[in-house]
Amino acid sequence: MKENQRRLFLKAITSIPILGGAVLAASALIRYFKPTTVGGVKGLVAPPDEAGSSIQVVAALSELTQPWDFKEFIYIRKSVEYSSRKIQGAKIPGFVVRMPDEFTDPKDPKSKFVVVQRICPHLGCTFNFVKSPEELAGGYNYKPPAPTHPYFACPCHLSVYDPTRKTDVALQGPLPGKVVSGPAPRPPRTMSFDIKDGQILITGTEGGGVG
């Protein structure tokens, strides 16, 4: 083997570990920005796994027949975790509320319900569904106008949300739960849902944290 050929051969051999390391680094970077459980080379081009896509029954329609009937629930949002556990579950408290007919669209059965995450957008406290105007005035420093109706209310910093009114939120559109008192910056985060076989099924959650 001539000297020049020998040098080229050695250069090619020594570059293999470097190229391998670069491929592994690129793979890790791609997985960070586009996580997926698909293994091998296919994982580099597979679509990312989506968090919060688990479907869960949280209420029966028979439990919510009258205006302002409500139910508390815990939704388990599942997402991919790159560890031996494979799946990570986050427990998200929520409310589903049966709205009075005057706040619904007769053509849309889903408009009869408001479904929200029970997490205050201010600092992440758990808020309540308060039916008593006296409790709102005494415990949350908010005197609702007549005619009164239930509100969502946070006991930590006294944010109060009106489920009959909506606020436009960037990238989301109008959402129920207009802030009528307190420091909360926006309405409660919502949950997407379907109605099937007499049940309400949560299909996902609005993303984002507090604030």
UniProtKB/TrEMBL annotation:
All residue ranges annotated as the Rieske domain in the record: 107-202
Highest rank taxon of the organism: Bacteria
InterPro entries membership: Rieske_2Fe-2S, Rieske_2Fe-2S_sf, Rieske_Fe-S_prot
Single Gene Ontology MF annotation: metal ion binding
Alphabetized Gene3D superfamilies for the sequence: Rieske [2Fe-2S] iron-sulphur domain
Transmembrane segments: 12-33
Keywords, ordered alphabetically: 2Fe-2S, Disulfide bond, Iron, Iron-sulfur, Membrane, Metal-binding, Transmembrane, Transmembrane helix
Name of the molecule in the record: Rieske domain-containing protein
